[in-house]
Design a protein that fits this description.
With 383 residues, the chain is an alpha+beta fold. The chain is 34% helix and 22% strand. The protein folds into 2 domains: 7-150, 3-Layer(aba) Sandwich (Creatine Amidinohydrolase, Chain A, domain 1); 155-372, Creatine Amidinohydrolase (Alpha-Beta Complex), CATH 3.90.230. The protein contains 10 helices and 14 strands. The radius of gyration is 23 Å and the shape is elongated. 45% of the residues are buried.
């Protein structure tokens, strides 16, 4: 059994969930988020693209309903002992199998919490689920119940986050080594991923972002891979990943020669990041972090080039993206706590000049402030 945490750690997590369920008067929780299943039991799969749910009732009973390919997956990666299989066939409706389990647990007429905001629960399956539970029990959207518990990392989790940060640093070394005129972006990606996997890392929850020239202004991965020109700009966002825990970084690197505005934009990114660091302390609202980001860029004349969010929580996440709750945007009331891990990205995309500049780092919130987990310099590196 490939459990990545101690028995005590899993016990503590389960007790926290049960306590939260009791506080919200919930008789059972139906989990559809893979992050929740992994965090609570160790269950590691991408089978959540099909109907799959982990049921936890107030008595602590845990039952997984999944497909046959994930039977041994659950047995080998988790502490789940009660695994039920719904059968693939034309017209199959796994909510019928779920209803059998709910009856076994005497949940008719009770209150169920459901993780509706989950990539594993498609709109079609959610409609089937709602129809199945209509007049059977009362339901409540508790998509954030476990997410709110996951947002504060334990000591065991922080070990994995710091290992992920080490892998992210190693990947940046490969960028500095290989990013030069005449090199294909694919080569850079290949070397970054190589050192992450050789270091014991995992696939990230989403693709790395890479783009040069005009594509350096893109904030999402796309399939085109270009060869770097003698004078160019290269934007890369990536994450080191270890045991599904992420530590992300973001850079724009001038190739050959930097445009004078690159220097100005980079100075603005450094100043904005430092101002955000000063606000990322326990007791502050994360909306205040974004406000520091926005004020810095706006005062420096970059209002049209900045984004409307400047980061998000990181932790154990699964495809299609590594962004976790909560996000750093204006007015977000979440109170920063020790043990939070946030990726803060300073993004400037200037459509008029077709220039980009990005600077992003991952931080662990400590008792008195924060710790930048990446150990690489923030200087503008020209290759």
């Amino acid at each position: 059994m490939a459990l990545h945490f101690s028995k005590q750690e899993f016990s503590n997590r389960k007790n926290k969930v049960l306590k939260s369920m009791e506080e919200q008067n919930i008789d059972a929780l139906l989990m559809f988020r893979q992050e929740s299943m992994y965090w609570l039991t160790g269950y590691d799969t991408f089978g959540y693209v099909f109907f799959q749910t982990l049921i936890l009732d107030k008595n602590g009973n845990t039952i997984l309903l999944t497909r046959a390919p994930d039977l041994r997956q659950a047995q080998n990666t988790s502490n789940i002992t009660d695994i039920r299989i719904w059968v693939d066939k034309d017209g199959s409706n796994p909510t019928n199998d779920l209803k059998i389990i709910l009856n076994e647990l005497n949940l008719k007429g009770k209150r169920l919490g459901i993780e509706y905001e989950a990539y594993g629960l498609t709109g079609r399956n959610a409609l089937k689920l709602n129809k199945s539970l209509e007049n059977y029990c009362s339901v409540e959207d508790l998509s954030e119940l476990i997410t709110r518990l996951r947002v504060v990392k334990s000591k065991e989790e922080i070990v994995y986050v710091k290992k992920a940060a080490e892998l992210a640093d190693n990947a940046l070394n490969e960028v500095w080594k290989h990013a030069k005129a005449g090199v294909n972006e694919s080569k850079i990606l290949a070397e970054m991923n190589r050192v992450i996997f050789e270091g014991g890392g995992d696939y990230p929850a989403n693709e790395f972002i890479i783009g040069s020239g005009k594509n350096a202004l893109l904030c999402r991965y796309q399939a085109e891979k270009q060869i770097l020109n003698k004078e160019d700009q290269l934007t890369i966002e990536w994450a080191g990943t270890y045991r599904h825990y992420h530590s992300a970084m973001f850079r724009t690197i001038p190739i050959g020669k930097a445009d004078p505005k690159h220097y100005t934009m980079h100075e603005a990114c450094v100043e904005a990041l430092q101002n955000c660091e000063n606000k990322l302390i326990p007791g502050n609202k994360i909306g205040e972090v974004f406000d520091a980001h926005a004020k810095t860029f706006d005062d420096l004349g970059f209002n049209k080039a900045r984004m409307n969010a400047c980061g998000y929580s990181l932790g154990t996440t699964f495809s299609p993206n590594w962004m976790d709750w909560p996000m750093l945007y204006t007015g977000n009331p979440y109170i920063i706590e020790p043990g939070n891990v946030f990726f803060m990205h300073m993004i400037l995309m200037d459509s008029e000049s077709q220039l980009a500049m990005n600077l992003g780092e991952t931080y662990l919130v400590t008792d008195k402030g924060n710790e930048r987990l990446g150990k690489k310099k923030l200087d503008l590196v020209i290759l």
